[in-house]
Structures are given as structure tokens and as C-alpha cells.
């Protein structure tokens, strides 16, 4: 019988794996590649994209970092300063990525040092394709080299995007792509959070937690309350359409692996109530709290929203369980988030353009969370109530709560078990 050479065997094997991968049969090994424990509560910080897009440079990032410190955002927990798309220049002759020399003339290591000296952390953006969404060099084929470079620069967080990864059967396998970058980070020797940004296209909630610490669940957010804007082949959505996609995903998020409904537009929405609701609901979802506004120019009422300690505590609760939609009507909804102390956070969201009077007669409605196995019978157990926006104590759950919620606003209450 004719011998098959080793070269042919390898080629045959590669072909078979390729066919199997295309057929979705290959599951890449689930060994723990990611550096664990970097995001035990949802990451908090700022990112340049939502407000500035490509119009960024080192002066803007430094001024923003200074404002994050002076406004109290850092001390409230917002430590990541993430430089999104468009920081890149060309690769050098050895293939090393370099920053845009005009926009970042001092280099990225200097920027990392600047942030670290202020008690902040440094985040950077790349893409699993040959090019980023804005056409800058992507990391495909350079993953280990880029991760090493980022480690030299002192990077703490990588947002890894999904543009230009091919179409249809030609498309890069997302698990392979994110696993490769995760392994590259581990090999770099520096602990870096990996933010998986493939827009929820391949159900990342089922697999991305092996490789990264958070994963986008939707397409891009945009600064409107209830709109979807088409850009041709893709679209972006406002607060309500994104929120509506989250309830079914709550079972997948938790410590060190978070559902990411995208960076916040708090500060960029037209009405103050909408900014409040957006923040309240992202806090309720246990979503990463990544600010996307102009921090140096931020109005005091926006700073007050973003630094509200009670809302932040609800978001950062160590149980890491996102809220369930408890009561739904066309105009208003009540969401309930189980908390580590045995209590709940309750949000009354007014979706409508009219003030809504909502009464919660605790004893008359069952609060049962099948996903996280929590049940509260308000006839048996009583809770104190605190208004999370103001910190003021309310009546407890032995009497009904009635609240007028302004158009597009959200009331939030924290329920703590009562010792009688
Ligand atoms: C998108 C991503 C945005 C932003 C943008 C940069 O794919 O979802 O958050 O990073 O790319 O080009």
C-alpha cells in the first residue's frame, strides 16, 4: 500500500479540522486561559468612544483623567480609562504596533504612567480582524506581539472588537479569536481584563466567560431613549431597546464574567430623567459602568448621578446577580435585583412620556426569582425601604408604597431584611 507522507497527514488533519470547525463541531478546549479574579464586580471606568469617536489624543485623555480624579469619579470607583479606536499608527518594520505619532507623541507607556500615577488604570482597544472598525491596524496574526507590547505599556484592560473578521463561512471563528487573545494576554505576563466586543452576534454569554471578563450583548448604543438608527449594514439602539434585550440574559452574568449592554450614554441623553434611568437600569443589570461622556465638561447633576453611592453599591453588590423584570406594563416596569445581604433593589422604570403613579402592595405580589433561587413572601418577611437616589428612609414593606414616577424617570429602592 502506498505510504502517505507526514506532510500529507498534517494537511489532511488540518483540512478535517477546518471542515469540522465550519460545521461547528470543534469546541476549543475550555481550559482556563483567562486571568481570573480581575472583575469580581462589574468594571467601572470611562471610554473615549461614545462622546469623541476617533477625535482623540493624549491631551484629551490626560485632561479626562484629571477630571475623573477632581470630580470624585475615581474615588467613587471609576478607575479604568479606556482609549478606544483610532489611537493607532502603523506597525514598525518588525510588526510592532505604534501609536499615532501626531495624536500620541509621548507614546503609550508615558500615558500609562500618567494614569497609574493618579491611581487610574489603562485600557486600550484592538480588533480581532486585520483592521479595526475605523480602519486602523487590527491584531489578527499579531496577538502575542500586541499583548506583549500592551504589557510593556502598562495596559490593564483590552477591549477587543470584531470588525473585519470576514463574512459567512470565511469569518474567523470567534471562540478561536478571543481564546487566542486571552492566551496572548496570559503569555504576556501582565494581568489585563479582556472585554469581548462581538456585539452579541455569536451568543458570547455561552462561551466568552472562559476567555474574557465581560462580553457585549448587543450592537452599539446611541444617545437616545427609545430609537434604533440604521447605518446600512448595522444599526445602533437607544436605552430602552438595549434594555429590552437584557432580561433573558441575566442567568449568564456574574462575578468575573459580565453581560455588557454597552458603555453608558449618561450625560449624553437629552433629558435629565433619561440619564437617571439609564444609570439606574445599568446599575440594576449589574452591567459594567463605563462612562462615555465629556468628563471635563460634565454638569454637576450628571456627576451626582454617576457618583451616587447607593446606586453604585447596588451595581457592585458582591452577589453579582442582575435584575429580573418583575412586573411589566406597557408604560412602566418594576425590576428586582437580589442582593448579597438577603435584600433586594427595586426599580420602577417609567418608559412613557406621562407621569405614572405606581403602587406596590408588597403583600399582594409574589417576588420569586427562579434563576437565582430566591423567593420572598412579604407576608412573612419584612424589609426596610431606602430611596436609593436620596438615601432617605421610607415606610417598610408592611404598607404599600405609592410613587409618582416622572416621564422617562426611574425610582429605585433598596430593601433590607428587617429585624423585628
Ligand atoms: C464598534 C464598537 C464600539 C466602538 C467602535 C470603534 O464595533 O462596538 O463600541 O469600539 O467599534 O470603532
Structure description:
The chain has 11 helices and 22 strands. The strands form 6 sheets. The chain has an 8-stranded parallel sheet with strand order 11-8-7-6-5-2-1-12. A 6-stranded antiparallel sheet has the order 13-14-15-22-19-20, covered by helices on one side. A two-stranded antiparallel sheet has the order 3-4. Helices cover 25% and strands 23% of the residues. Strand 5, helix 6 (143-153) and strand 6 form a beta-alpha-beta unit. Helix 6 (143-153) crosses helix 7, helix 9 (272-284) runs parallel beside helix 10 and helix 9 packs parallel to helix 11 (309-315). The longest helix is centred in the first third of the chain and has 17 residues, at 6-22. The protein starts with 5 loop residues before the first helix and ends with a strand. The chain has helices spanning 6-22, 49-52, 58-70, 73-76, 108-117, 143-153, 174-188, 239-244, 272-284, 300-306, 309-315, and strands at residues 44-47, 80-82, 88-91, 97-99, 121-127, 157-161, 193-196, 214-216, 228-230, 235-237, 258-260, 289-291, 324-328, 332-338, 344-350, 356-360, 367-369, 374-376, 383-387, 393-394, 401-405, 410-417. The relative contact order is 0.11. The protein is of the alpha/beta class. Residues 1-30 have low confidence and may be disordered. The chain is globular. It has 2 domains: 32-315, TIM Barrel (Alpha-Beta Barrel), CATH 3.20.20.70; 324-417, Golgi alpha-mannosidase II (Immunoglobulin-like, Sandwich). Beta-D-galactopyranose binds at residues 49, 84-85, 132-134, 161, 163, 197, 220.
Amino acid at each position: 500500500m502506498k505510504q502517505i507522507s507526514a506532510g500529507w497527514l498534517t494537511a489532511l488533519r488540518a483540512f478535517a479540522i477546518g471542515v469540522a470547525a465550519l460545521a461547528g463541531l470543534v469546541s476549543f478546549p475550555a481550559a482556563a486561559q483567562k486571568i481570573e479574579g480581575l472583575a469580581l464586580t462589574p468594571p467601572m471606568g470611562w471610554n473615549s468612544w461614545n462622546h469623541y469617536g476617533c477625535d482623540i489624543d493624549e491631551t484629551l485623555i490626560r485632561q479626562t483623567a484629571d477630571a475623573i480624579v477632581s470630580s470624585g469619579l475615581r474615588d467613587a470607583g471609576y478607575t479604568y480609562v479606556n482609549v478606544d479606536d483610532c489611537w493607532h499608527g502603523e506597525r514598525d518594520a518588525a510588526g510592532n504596533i505604534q501609536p499615532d505619532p501626531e495624536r500620541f507623541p509621548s507614546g503609550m507607556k508615558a500615558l500609562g504612567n500618567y494614569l497609574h500615577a493618579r491611581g487610574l488604570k489603562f485600557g486600550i482597544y484592538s480588533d480581532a480582524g486585520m483592521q479595526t472598525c475605523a480602519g486602523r491596524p487590527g491584531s489578527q496574526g499579531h496577538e502575542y506581539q500586541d499583548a506583549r507590547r500592551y504589557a510593556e505599556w502598562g495596559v490593564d484592560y483590552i477591549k477587543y472588537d470584531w470588525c473585519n473578521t470576514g463574512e459567512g463561512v470565511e469569518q474567523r471563528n470567534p471562540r478561536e479569536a478571543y481564546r487566542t487573545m486571552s492566551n496572548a494576554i496570559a503569555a504576556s505576563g501582565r494581568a489585563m481584563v479582556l472585554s469581548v466586543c462581538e456585539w452579541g452576534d455569536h451568543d458570547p454569554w455561552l462561551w466568552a466567560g472562559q476567555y474574557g471578563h465581560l462580553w457585549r450583548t448587543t450592537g452599539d448604543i446611541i444617545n437616545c431613549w427609545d430609537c434604533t438608527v440604521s447605518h446600512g449594514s448595522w444599526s445602533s439602539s437607544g436605552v430602552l431597546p438595549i434594555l429590552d434585550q437584557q432580561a433573558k440574559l441575566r442567568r449568564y452574568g456574574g462575578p468575573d464574567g459580565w453581560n455588557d449592554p454597552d458603555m453608558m450614554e449618561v450625560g449624553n441623553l437629552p433629558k435629565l430623567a433619561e440619564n437617571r434611568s439609564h444609570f439606574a437600569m445599568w446599575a440594576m443589570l449589574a452591567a459594567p459602568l463605563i462612562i462615555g461622556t465629556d468628563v471635563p465638561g460634565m454638569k454637576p447633576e450628571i456627576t451626582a448621578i454617576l457618583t451616587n453611592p447607593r446606586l453604585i453599591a447596588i451595581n457592585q453588590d458582591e452577589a453579582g446577580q442582575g435584575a429580573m423584570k418583575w412586573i411589566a406594563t406597557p408604560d412602566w416596569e418594576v425590576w428586582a435585583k437580589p442582593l448579597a445581604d438577603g435584600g433586594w433593589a427595586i426599580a420602577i422604570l417609567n418608559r412613557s412620556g406621562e407621569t405614572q403613579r405606581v403602587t406596590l402592595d408588597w403583600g399582594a405580589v409574589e417576588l420569586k426569582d427562579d434563576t437565582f433561587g430566591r423567593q420572598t413572601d412579604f407576608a412573612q418577611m419584612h424589609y426596610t425601604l431606602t430611596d436609593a437616589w436620596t438615601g432617605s428612609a421610607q415606610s417598610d414593606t408592611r404598607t404599600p408604597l405609592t410613587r409618582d414616577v416622572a416621564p422617562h424617570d426611574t425610582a429605585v429602592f433598596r430593601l433590607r431584611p428587617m429585624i423585628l
